[in-house]
Design brief:
The complex is a heterodimer of chains A (363) and B (338). By secondary structure, chain A is mostly helical. Helix content of chain A is 74%, strand content 3%. Chain A is built from 13 helices and 2 strands; from the N terminus they run ααββααααααααααα. Classes of the chains: A mainly alpha (363), B mainly alpha (338).
Chain lengths: 363, 338
């Protein structure tokens, strides 16, 4: 640590200031763009707020016990009950049927148990919340890895694609391999892989990941093919900038927008697909609360007719989370895609005017 | 390269040739994944689980041989038309050929539903872009997108089906007495001129087909909406409006026709999603198609069946894309075959 007032400290201070200034310069237009996106379509705002709520709750579920435990004393939690705790004997209700009555621990939603309880008397609200961080992390990480892997391969395949060069051969190989994986209906391959690897979280994550990256190869390659012939890239090449630097600084930066939009939409799709694998019974083990395996377990216990809240709470959680990302991603795409943006603005305003103005003229 | 008939034939031929390496890759990947991860499924197949029975099963199915030899034998058999046997020694190919038409019937019905419902919704949304109609339609199709396949199917089967009195298990109420020539429930009943059974088959088709259609509706609606948004501001639409044509005529005759081209291609891409969807939907609705077959084969470690289904699905996806590309070229006079 330098003494205050020394030249070194001054230099680091100006350095820090410069970083702050660069970032504000970048953030201000970004914020303006964000406000523009949200104003263009209220649904996007709804989606954005839903995503924020989901992420904040997930962080709280993980962070509150961890922080309170670290500070010392009792580990607090925002979950009202322990997700795996079942009272024994559990409070039950009596069901009357034509051939007698029987007891069940499934209690309908009430103030004590917001989403009711399941067949073992566990609190479903707590279980749904407890599963949130895991499901969200899986959604983000599978999509992230797929985007990274597919993105890098797509960059290579799009940028060095001249035939009869080493790059061209590698690009052709990448594209052929992507074609093979695209011909699989992804769920079937994922199921086959997950079933072969045995029940577990990691195998099912791997299974989806393996079928997910080719979409990003296609997406990124398509964008690179357009951007790499634009004048500023050609200029950078003429100025002698190295190939790798051009690829990452000039090409990648300018195709990030569609990738981010696709990623946002994709998180929801991955969540839904992952829960499907869990539903089939080859995903996350049953002792770990996860939305897909909750639906599977309750459905297979025939609780759909007796206590529909068990199935619907877990399924609804997947639905709401996936919908949040879809709303956000779909809205972003509408505004960021320049072609549909222009159309959106033009279609929203003048058509009515023309139609209205044309009618009397005709009459 | 041009737009002659011979160009089209060369184009289709080339694409069909590309199917060969794709199929080879698909078969190889599935083969090694399944066989490396579960080298010996016999232990879970044989009910008796005596060491002798397991050993007998290993020898019968060749799991005692080195992996590469198993692979080579499998490829050789496949080329010769023998797709292998499942755990109870039934041939895989006839079973798949029996089940596939049933799935084709289901998927075709849901594509028709997607077109009938999805495209007008897209038009309505685009015409009211940014207004509440648009928001409503988008929420609707994004809901389909965000609904897990099984949840949609379970709700339809357990809640909607009984409420509307629609059947939701299997393709017929009772085992059909007429010959199943095509293995498509509705057509078979029609061919046998059994009208009661035809009605029954149609009723059985409604719920699974709507489940499949609802979950994939977003693709048709969103594409129609997107391309309509591009077409609506163009001059020819303005001209049509200024001529005083009614909204309906302008939208559906002039604008939709020009935006349908891109929607067609997207319907081809949907094929993969629809086929994936059948795996879960057929299982919940007990539909006797290839999805249910795939589900059983995968969960029982029946590799011949799994690879067989994967081959059929891969051919289906590639052909659907090819058909979409050809349609696109036929609809858009600017496209050249290459």
């Amino acid at each position: 640590m330098e003494a205050p007032g020394s030249p070194a400290a001054f230099a680091s201070l100006t350095g820090a200031l410069r970083i702050v200034r660069t970032w504000t310069r970048r953030l201000v237009p970004a914020t303006r763009g964000f406000i523009r996106v949200m104003r263009a379509n209220p649904l996007t705002l709804v989606g954005f707020l839903m995503v924020v709520v989901v992420v904040v709750v997930a962080v709280l579920v993980v962070a509150v016990p961890a922080i309170s435990g670290a500070i010392g004393g009792q580990r607090a939690s925002i979950l009202p009950y322990d997700p795996n705790y079942y009272p024994s004997p559990c409070p039950s209700r009596t069901i009357q049927t034509s051939n007698g009555s029987y007891e069940t621990c499934t209690l309908p939603p009430s103030l004590q148990h917001l989403f009711g309880t399941d067949n073992l008397g566990r609190d479903i609200f707590s279980r749904v919340l407890a599963a949130l961080p895991l499901d969200l992390a899986i959604g983000f990480s599978i999509t992230g890895f797929a985007a990274l892997l597919g993105g890098v391969l797509g960059l290579v395949a799009g940028y060095w694609d001249r035939p009869r060069t080493i790059g061209g051969v590698i690009s052709a190989l990448i594209l052929r391999l992507a074609d093979v994986f695209l011909a699989f209906p992804s769920l079937v391959l994922a199921l086959a892989i997950a079933a072969s690897l045995g029940r577990g979280t990691i195998p099912s994550v791997l299974a989806i990941l393996l079928t997910w990256w080719p979409y990003y190869v296609r997406l990124v390659r398509g964008e690179v093919l357009v951007v790499k012939h634009l004048p500023y890239v050609v200029a950078a090449k003429a100025a002698g900038v190295s190939e790798v630097r051009i690829l990452f600084r000039h090409v990648l930066r300018n195709i990030l927008e569609p990738i981010i939009v696709y990623y946002t939409l994709d998180v929801g799709t991955v969540l839904v697909t992952f829960s499907t694998i869990s539903f089939i019974g080859i995903g996350v083990p049953l002792n770990v609360p996860e939305w897909g395996n909750m639906v599977e377990y309750y459905y297979n216990q025939n609780l759909m007719g007796l206590a529909p809240w068990t199935v619907l709470a877990a399924g609804g959680a997947i639905f709401i989370t996936a919908l949040a990302f879809s709303l956000l991603g779909d809205g972003l795409r509408d505004v960021l895609d320049p072609r549909s943006r222009r159309a959106l603005v033009q279609a929203a305003v003048p058509t009515k005017v023309t139609a209205g103005a044309a009618a009397p003229a005709e009459a | 390269m041009g737009r002659n008939k011979s160009d089209l034939i060369i184009f289709v031929g080339k694409r069909l040739l590309q199917l060969v390496p794709v199929l080879f890759g698909v078969i190889t990947i599935t083969f090694f994944f399944t066989h490396v991860a579960v080298p010996d499924p016999c232990a879970s197949w044989t009910k008796a689980r005596t060491p002798a029975a397991v050993q007998q099963c290993r020898i019968t199915f060749g799991f005692d041989k080195p992996l590469l030899i198993q692979y080579w034998t499998y490829l050789g058999n496949l080329v010769g038309g023998n797709w292998g046997e499942n755990s109870v020694r039934e041939q895989v190919l006839p079973a798949i050929l029996r089940a596939f038409p049933e799935t084709l019937e289901l998927v075709t019905t849901s594509i028709v539903l997607m077109i009938i419902v999805g495209i007008p919704l897209g038009v309505v949304a685009a015409n009211g872009a940014g207004r509440w109609r648009d928001h409503l339609v988008r929420t609707f199709y994004l809901s389909g997108w965000a609904t897990p396949t099984y949840l949609g199917a379970v709700v339809l089967a357990v809640v909607v089906g009984p409420a509307l009195g629609l059947p939701y298990q299997g393709a017929f109420t009772s085992q059909p007495t007429f010959p199943e020539r095509l293995h498509m429930s509705v057509l078979d009943a029609l061919l046998a001129w059994n009208l009661a059974a035809t009605g029954d088959a149609i009723l059985h088709l409604i719920l699974p087909a709507s489940a499949l259609a609802f979950l994939n509706l977003g693709i048709a609606t969103r594409m129609t909406r997107g391309s309509m948004l591009e077409v609506l501001p163009l001059d020819f639409v303005k001209t049509a409006r200024m001529k005083g044509l009614s909204d309906f005529w302008v939208l559906y005759k002039h604008a939709l026709r020009n935006s349908l081209i891109s929607t067609t291609t997207v319907l081809g891409i949907t094929a993969g999603g629809l086929l994936s969807g059948t795996v879960v939907i057929e299982n919940i609705f007990r539909w006797p198609g290839i999805g249910a077959y795939a589900f059983n084969a995968i969960t029982n470690y029946e590799f011949a069946g799994t690879i067989g289904v994967v081959i059929i699905f891969a051919i289906g996806v590639v052909l659907a894309n090819l058909i979409a590309d050809v349609l696109y070229g036929l609809l858009d006079p600017r496209v050249e075959w290459r």
